[in-house]
Amino acid sequence: MKEAFVGGVLLDGRQDMAPQKDRVVLVEDGKITGIVDKEDKEAYQDFQIIDLQGAYLMPGLVNLHVHLAGSGKPKKKPIDPVKSVKQITSSGLMRAVGHAMVANFAKTQLLSGTTTIRTVGGIADFDTRIRDEINAGKRIGPRILASGMAISVPGGHMAGSLAYIAHSAEEARDYVDVIAKDKPDLIKLMITGGVMDAEVVGEPGVLRMPPEYVKAACDRAHELGFQVAAHVESPKGVAVALENGVDSIEHGAKPDAHIAALFKENGAFQVATLCPALPYGLFDCQVSHATKEQKANGKVVFDGVIEMAKENLAQGVPVGLGTDTACPFVTQYDMWRELDFYGKYCGVSNAFALYTGTLLNATLAGVGDVTGSIEVGKCADMIVTKGNPLENLSVLRHVEMVVKDGVIYDHPQVKKIPEVEVEMDKFNRVK
């Protein structure tokens, strides 16, 4: 296939991106082979013309923190994740049902405009299998960088559901080898607790995983060539993670001078996740179905993620973005909200938020040479919107076209959750 995308306004995804008119993006066999002036018609005379009619063409979004096994639809009562995972893996038939469900959520990610995702804790080997099926052309979905199952400890975050339970440093190291058999792209650790399992109001993110477990797992992961991402929601947890080899802090907490120094010394980065804590911390409890204690702790986490992101930005430490799909009110189709919250609460420009959600995220995930920007030699992973996201990021919620590896999905449709749309829109800058 040879396609020429003409008549649009190009936003190439780079940090200094500015709207470029009269540019034509040439795609052959899924790769970007040229970006030429529209008057250079000889360069694309034998290409299929894709007329964008004045719309905006930009890289597909990249989401660095996804759990594919859930819709994000809020529930009035919490569901036991251990029981749910045991049920979905209880037989060959149930595993097939679960696999198909997760694959459908991956498809939703793509059709909403997210062309690359990084999964950080999933059911069994579902994520890596679906990644391989997409790569083989057997399923429709985004580029997936998968961690597979994570590693936790007794009583730890997602222990026994999306994470193995390590009882010693040696077991933590051994579980890296177990996970490696499924050929993941990274390793995920659950170092602290979260909002739902906080023991004291004002102290979410209790340290669960001992430092020696963290070091053992990180050392083995690095020996095998894997980055290590870690769920962390307290200052103590961040320090332990960075002191013992973690490469990315998922979520974050209020920083101090020691933490700031550790980020720089280790070359680590933060993946800020504003979407999951916001409903707990800012919604009315009757809407979020959270207890007063969970609301208070949700606000602590939300503020901590923001403070860490601001400090890291000030210190030149990379900050990526992820949604933490499928927490309550966090869907498989709303990456645009994370970009918008980044601008609203962390004070970055729309252009910087879009750059972060495309090229920077791809670079942090290790695929910046493959995707994340519209440049010659990269995969043709692109989206089209009617409006200009540099002026209004909410235009990203309605994509006119998704292109992944050169395959075009014209006017894609995803099923949305009305309650989420109504409640989250109250906090996004929707125009």
UniProtKB/TrEMBL annotation:
Gene3D superfamilies (alphabetical): Metal-dependent hydrolases (3.20.20.140), Urease, subunit C, domain 1 (2.30.40.10)
Entries under InterPro entries matching the protein:
Amidohydro-rel, Metal-dep_hydrolase_composite, Metal_Hydrolase, Metallo-dep_Hydrolase
Q: Which residues form the Amidohydrolase-related domain?
A: 56-407
Give the superkingdom in one word.
Bacteria
Give the SUPFAM superfamilies listed for this entry.
Answer: Composite domain of metallo-dependent hydrolases, Metallo-dependent hydrolases
For this entry, the protein name equals Amidohydrolase family protein
User: Which organism is the protein's source?
Assistant: Roseburia lenta
